[in-house]
Amino acid sequence: MPIARGWIGLTVSADGRRVYASGGTEDRILVYNFAEGALSFAFDIKLKSGTYPAGLTVDKAGDKLFAVGNLDNFFHVVDLKERRVISSIPIGAKPYACAISADERTAYVSHWGGDSVAVIDLATARVVKNIKVQDHPNDLVLTSSGARLLVANGNRNTVSVIDTRKAEVIEQIDVALVPKSPLGSTPNALALSSDEKTLFVANADNNSLAVIDVAQGKGSVPRGFIPTGWYPTAIGVATTGKKLIVANGKGSASRENASLWNEGFDRKNPGYVENLLEGTLSFIDMPTAKTLALYSQQVHRNSPGGRKKLSSIKAPFLLGTRSPIKHIIYIVKENRTYDQILCDVPEGNGDPTYCLFPEEVTPNHHALARQFVLFDNLYHDAEVSADGHHWTTSAYATDIVEKSWPSAYGGRGGRSSAVLHSDPEVYSSGGFLWDLCARAGISYRSYGEFARIDFGRPRAKTDPPPKVRAAAPGLEGHFHPTYIGADGIAVMSDSERFGLFYKDLQAFEVKGEMPRFQIMSLPGDHTLGTRAGAQTPRAMMAENDLALGRIVEAVSRSRFWRSTAIFVVEDDTQGGPDHVDFHRTVAFIISPYTRRRFVDSTMYSSSSMLRTMELILGLPPLSQFDQAATPMWKSFQTEANLGTYRAMPARILLDEKNATTAYKAERSLELTLDKADTAPDNEFNEILWKAIKGPGAALPPRRVAAFLRYKDQD
Questions:
Q1: Helices (H), strands (E): how many in the chain?
Q2: What is the CB-side half-sphere exposure of residue 360 using CA atoms within 13 A?
Q3: Where are the domains of the chain?
Q4: What is the pLDDT of residues 88-143, one digit of tens each?
Q5: pTM exceeding the 0.90 threshold for the entire prediction
Q6: Domain 320-693 belongs to what topology?
Q7: Count of CB atoms within 10 A of residue 397's CB?
């Protein structure tokens, strides 16, 4: 039964004859009849605009439906006979799920954007208490007696057990694969066995279920893990009690998409990345103790966080306070795959078929790859830009981010990338790299990364520059006040961005000290498409290339060069073409301590870059992902090579402009290309490809690789 804009929220009446589903951004509840194994639409219940219904439950008599509004922050009571909302109770941030006590006098609601569960007296229609649990509580399940409420905490590795009589937490169950793990398991769905002695917890980012003995009268005891598909988001227990049913939010694995591709560029194209993440259901027999032991071993083998570290290669120099590298500059660019830029470097694994910006356009990218280290086997952890900026700065994307972007990118509305990059309630509890620096007493500064601008209308050239604000609390007082990053691509050029950084660098030289960690948005390679009168995509990429080269040259000629490493990566690949996999991206590490003219084909991830930076600075990991990532020591050396870098001049005109006849020039004007990551990525990729290759050039299919890298080390 198709649901056009559905989101989370599904429940069944006590007699099994009615099914209720969230209509998502349509702001309605869809009601279906269920008979003889088939659903048929019955009616819908309209809600006020902006509700975004999430968790649902229905009373025993089938007279009332209870729904939480994830965007309006209300708990709604619906009269099913009158088919209307009869009560709306204000609650906390981003409510996710709800449960009703056995006597139907009390409701419990998880505050996904906070760290508590609301207790609602249904007779008085008011919140009587908020029970503190842990970060980002999502799913919850109430025992049949109503004595205990179990709550999954998505931004921790825990499940909170609440004594409902006392209205307090009596136990925190750690569901991570190994003890003392940083966050990253992402528990986000719960189910109890039919005898309520066993709790099953869906660990979305461990691709597994945790199995917990919760028999009353004793403390909870972990029993093991069950492997699932990719990102499990819901669990059910069959009425027989003999099977588990698991919904895998992203399906089973990455897969080839060439055979699915067509020439259309709407969201119905089955080759689009948004359509490749098809959910699946797993039907799993209740395991015996012996089978559960085997399953647990499999889960540990499947997860880098659950097995031995992958790399035995050690850093060639001391780390932390004794490291010769004292300064790190981390540059985050926008949306390019490896093949889009470095496809024509013969030393690497490139395919010119997929090339958009060869050496003629990007001489500095190519020179840096040749003079320092060429990484041709590094893959981004992110799938799109909405989660990309989180992965590049916190080595994690919360379940709020992961469950929000598919709706937005799929054209169903909900939270946009701009919201996901400016709302602290959706951020990782592990913080960002700069938060680690703050805790360690390391100086830091941001140039446009999570330092955003606010303007609600197109800007005229005569308008004053928009105000920059910190979009993450830890950046207050630690960002450049006029440097505009990826949310203002058309407002500031990459040449201007370089100028602001260079001015600061000169001041640091005079002062004799520079922030030890600097992060910089350099977003011009996103481009503005083919807007008439705007720079062509080639020109914007060339300017981005020149700015990168000038940054490296300036730093390499400064007093700080001996103690500096410059890390460069894209925020994600935005589903662009690459002959290996569309996650493969462009990355550089540039330092006197990196090897020269070296090709490193080790399989790395974007979290490998974070882990390498953390280890150099003596910082702990942010999540399970950077903790388990392979550090990039193979590309470093013991002795410093103080040779400097000279920026290569642009080979094409930087003021090359799009003509009014450029491919889809009018459409480029309509798209929100001023802000990165807000335009439909597939359509935008098509515009770039055909603007450069010609209107008749067929866009090559994306490739999705399902390979794994696993090697036991002593």
A1: 14, 34
A2: 7
A3: 1-132, 320-693
A4: 999 999 999 999 999 999 999 999 999 999 999 999 999 999 999 999 999 999 99
A5: yes
A6: Alkaline Phosphatase, subunit A (3.40.720)
A7: 27
